[in-house]
Amino acid sequence: MSSTETTTATADFTATEIMTVAASRLLKDGTVCFVGIGLPSTAANLARLTHAPEVVLIYESGPIGAKPTVLPLSIGDGDLALTADTVVSTPEIFRYWLQGGRIDVGFLGAAQVDRFANINTTVIGPYDTPKVRLPGAGGAPEIASQAKEVFIVLKQSPKAFVAKLPFVTSAGYLDGGDARAKAGIPGAGPTAVITDLGILTPDPVTKELTLTSIHPGVTVEQVKAATGWDLKISPDLKTTEIPDAGALAALRDLQARTAAAHGQAGGGEG
């Protein structure tokens, strides 16, 4: 358990669990969702197993309507194809489904985000002499630009929420305001960033991320200390609804099945 979890966990759930449940609640039943591996996949599958049984989960390797029994370790996990309604080619996923405007939600993870919800999954430090070389883009730039809206889920810390990204892998709102629209990027962009401390949403005009919901047991000071810029706080700040027993049981069962199958919980980070 991380130090954050130690300070925010209650007797009933951890900080990671409330983050996952809060993210899953954003997915409505029947939504067509392009899912990233890791935390997004955990939240999306939790939604499918609880309040949104008709959510359509799409992975970039081609499965449509995937219903994995355990969390996939990668987009090439065979369980995705075995449990899907159908499987198409990766070019069809991107050209027909994503670029064709048929994806309601892109669900992404990130290594870093900035105040305008731009994403870095490429490199920490200078590109040519990096401190850390990250996994890279995959399909995320296309998902971030073409999905009707985007949810981002990641743990919040000063290293992850930075004032300036060393590399912009996937576009959020670029420099804010109408910069995204002027760049000709069609999707609405990130509409929620869900963390282990709260939920941030973009200001309607400036597009700067604003704390609009805080998890129970977390203070505003904690969230600001975990953010690398002067985070704006909504005057209508809400408290995140605590996870219900059914969602927690489904999440823990999913992670236990995954650990039994893969030797790890799977999807813990992404």
Describe this structure in words.
The chain has 270 residues and is an alpha/beta fold. Helix content is 29%, strand content 19%. The protein contains 9 helices and 14 strands. It has helices at residues 3-8, 15-25, 39-49, 78-82, 90-98, 140-146, 179-182, 220-225, 245-262, and strands at residues 32-35, 56-58, 63-64, 86-87, 105-108, 112-113, 119-120, 123-124, 132-133, 149-153, 190-194, 198-202, 209-214, 232-239. The strands form 4 sheets. It has an 8-stranded mixed β-sheet, with helices on both faces. Strands 3-4 form a two-stranded antiparallel sheet. Strands 6-7 form a two-stranded antiparallel ribbon. A hairpin with a 7-residue loop joins β8 and β9. α2 (15-25) packs across α3. The longest helix is centred in the last third of the chain and has 18 residues, at 245-262. The chain is globular and about 45 Å long. The chain starts with a helix and ends in an 8-residue tail after the last helix.
